[in-house]
Amino acid sequence: MDSDALSKPYREGLVTKERFYLHIQFFRIYFYCRFSSARISMQLIWRAIPDAFITLRELTEAYGSMMSTQELRSLTEFFSDAMGEETIISQPRTLKHLSRVRVRCVMEGNGTLSPETLNKLFVPRDIRSYLRLLE
């Protein structure tokens, strides 16, 4: 599929620019990086952003005329597997997740978002791991 066809949902106003970029990033990982680290890459990306998970319905509405139902199902199965949960309906992320994203944004703004700094935080180990995107 060429880039002109892939950009059709964005050009037609079916998805925002930001969401379109997430779709392209997801497609790139799915189609070109089908090795074990692809799953880890997906996890790290989606643990660091506040956006709702990608759903089959969303992909079908945007790309249903370009991809088969089976391809779209395969994409969402890969995504769900990487995230460790099914993404049947689009819903906001948890407050816990949104808090992590905000704390990381503030730390980045202060120049303190680094593995070394996160390891030195005087917080429980599980919170430190969560901020480091390990869970």
TrEMBL record:
InterPro entries: SOCS_box. It holds the Pfam family SOCS_box. Residues 90-135 form the SOCS box domain. It comes from the Eukaryota. This is SOCS box domain-containing protein.
